[in-house]
Each structure stands twice: as structure tokens, then as C-alpha cells.
Amino acid sequence: MQTGASGRLRYNGRLLFTNPLSRFFVTAPVVSLSPTPSSLLPDVAHDAAALARPLDWVGMERIALPLRIADGAGSTLQVAASVDVGVDLRDADARGIHMSRLYLRLQQAFASEAVTPAGLRRVLQDCVESQQGLSGSARLALRYDHLLQRAALASGNSGWKRYPVTIEATLADGHLRVALSLSVEYSSTCPASAALSRQANADRFANDFATARPLSSEMVQDWLASERGLAATPHAQRSRAEVRVELRPAFDELPVTALVDALEAALGTPVQTAVKREDELAFAELNAANLMFCEDAARRIAATLSAEPRVERYDATVSHFESLHPHDAVARVSGCNTA
Fold it and tell me: Structure pTM?
């Protein structure tokens, strides 16, 4: 493609465009600029720091990254994640860290292999070394939605359910600490309300059959199956358990799926995915078998986490989003597991 002094634009000898104003202007020569080598560009991060002092953490938050996560069935899934990364700034006179180095080192850090404690250690050590003596510690937080396929209770169907997960990892003076935070949702039926409902049902039964003689099992069964057989129902609500565990360093995996399974089994009434009538019946039966206050739920979670060999310390908060009240019922529990 050529542009003549007359303002004509030609391509392979063909005239494509003529600028009618070209006779009034002088065509300037095209100047090709070579990029300045990065080593010659100014870098004010090397300037002396005003009010010099060390900083606890410097870095970036909410970086978009792909993660490869173990699915608990021997395979992996790639998920979208939001990642925080930071290092300490130990050199009090240094104005700043090499932030772009942290960003670039994360770009493919977790895309090709599943996130493991060993992999987290390698990435964190690389972050420290990228600072060339400015830092001695590094930290990561990886947030994503963990997808698990859950079977229906009775129908044979299944569906996907998401569990918000945060992986926290800190490398300080060569020591790695890893923590997992996750939440599970479940149904909670109030024991007090259930007792009152049973009393209301018993009172109605006594009133309806006060003069019924003889009383056959068929009559009672028909009454129970009728609308008269349900004088009151206990209140129930969706609830959530938010759990944070610090993991022991002896294990080489992140037990996300195992922890979710254990917590849902302990609570007994996890919210469902695919639901047909037979599944809803089974769910109602589970709720009747697992009446619980928020205190009961917190104790179930504590008992489960206390028996988990991979957990060193745990903190849990359960919230029952009350259908009876305009506020929530909340319980918190924490503990340390002995070696």
C-alpha cells in the first residue's frame, strides 16, 4: 500500500482513495520511533521513601485468574477465581515493591495443575524471591465457587450446587500456613415450634375424637391424612454454616469436598438441587429427624471438625434466617485440635 504526495492511496497499483485537500498541505515524512529499552525508562519505585518505615503487606486484590481445582473424584475442574496477593516490605528505605512481578508470576501459576499446599508454597516462595531482598513473607487468598454434583434424596436425579470457598496461604520465614473457608446451606426446623405443633395436633385429635367409640386405626389414619390432621406446622428456614479451618502441614491436599460432605452429613438437612415429590417427602422426613436450634447446629459442626485429622484449628458461625422473626439466630464456636 502506497500513499503519494498528491494524496492518492494505492494498493497493488489500484487507486483506492484520493484526498481532495492534499494540494493545500505538505505531506510530512513518516518517522519510525523505536521503543526505549525498559532499562532506560525511569523507575521512581527506586527513589528513597519519605517517612521511611517497613510495611506489613503490599500487593493487589481481586485479580482475575483461572484455577484448577481437584473435584474430589480423582479429576480436576478449571474455575474462575478472584485472587489477592501481597508481600511484606521489610526494607524501610525502599519506596515500593516490584508489583508487576507479582502479577506476572500469578498468570499461569494455577492453570495447569490442581491447587495443593506444595503448589502454594512454590508460588509464594517465587513471589518473595521476585522482590530481590525487599520481602521475606508472602500471602495469597484465592476465592472461587466450588461446584459439586449432588444426588436427589429419592428420585435418582441430580443437580449442581455451588459452595463459596476461600483458600488462604501465608509463607513467613519458610513456614507455610494454609486455611480454608467455606459455607454450606441447610434447613433448620425449630424444636420449640415442633413441640408446640405436636401439642396443637394432639389437642385437636382429642377434641375431634372425644366421643368417638369405638376408635379404629382406619378412622385415625383417615383423620391424619385429612386437613384436620394438621393443626399446626413448625417453622423452618434456610440456614448457613460458615466455617474456617486452619490445616495441618502434614497433608498434601486441600480437603474441600471432604469437608463439605462431612458438614452436610453432620447437619443432616442440606438444601437440595433436583427435587421431585418423593424427594420433597424425604426432605421433610429429614427435617423432622433433625430438629435444631442454632446452638445444636454449632455443636454438630464442632464435633465434626474436632474429629477431622487434617484440621488444626476451626472457627464456625451458623446463622438461621428466621421465618418467625425479622432477625437471625446466630451461634459461633471455635476450637483447636490436639496433635
Answer: 0.83
